[in-house]
Amino acid sequence: CKSWSDLIGSSSFVSTQLHRNVTKHAHVYLLCLHHPHFERQNDNDDPYVVEELQWSLFSNETFEQFSELSHPLGSTDHYGIYGSSNGLVCISDEILNFDSPIHIWNPSVRKFRTPPMGTNNLKFAYVALQFGFHPGVNDYKAVRMIRTNKDTFAVEVYSLRTDSWKMIETIPPWLKCHWQHHTGTFFNGVAYHIIEKGPIFSIMSFDSSSEEFQEFIAPDAICNSLGLCMDVYKEHICLLFRYYGCEDECMQKYDLWVLREKRWKQLCPFVYPWNRCRAMGINIDNELLL
């Protein structure tokens, strides 16, 4: 007979509860960056007016605002969210730099952890940050990628379990060239990024446990980054691409491709009225968010 504290502290109990929350969509909220009164108050033509935005949690079912998310350190500066998983949120500066502080935050209990500074101090670099849970190693990971204008590329991985960073030493040759970085996402412990090398778009993946890189060339129809985003659809990485040639002039269309067994498969597109906002992504119920 185990004590209650031993039971809830066991890894099997934690895994079971995580699985239950995911499969039953328990306590699922949408993280949204929005205007305080949900409508733009600023003049778009005035470059000196600072746009006021805030992060909030919204119900996944009713879309009602549940809670505002103020910075855990009380800062009034804008901050960015770079991933969330099982109630933990990764936040950092809105514009990332090599020395931007990172906080792993649980808003529900108002506690956070600040990882130590990474080992890489490349200045004047583009920095990408992603965070999520890796079920294969039962650990939360943050992946930081740094690229300079001289095409120097570095990757660091943070482990919440060990509270430490690890520099990735081996970078594949196909990343040792000039390329542009676009949006990314984190799924099942793997960081995915849309990259552009000349006229070719592809998906770069990096497994935060095995430290393996892979590249998946995007479908030929994807020819620019405008209207292109990446998300997860039915447990598969997917690409959404806004297509301007819809048969009905009053409608617009997002083509949908999913990555299955390392190959792209095109599915039925999303079609919706032209006057709606652009697509924001796909929610946990595999519905398009506008």
Automatic annotation (TrEMBL):
Residues 75-265 form the F-box associated beta-propeller type domain. It holds the Pfam family FBA_3. SUPFAM superfamilies: Kelch motif. This is SFB. PANTHER family: BNACNNG10540D PROTEIN, F-BOX PROTEIN CPR30-LIKE.
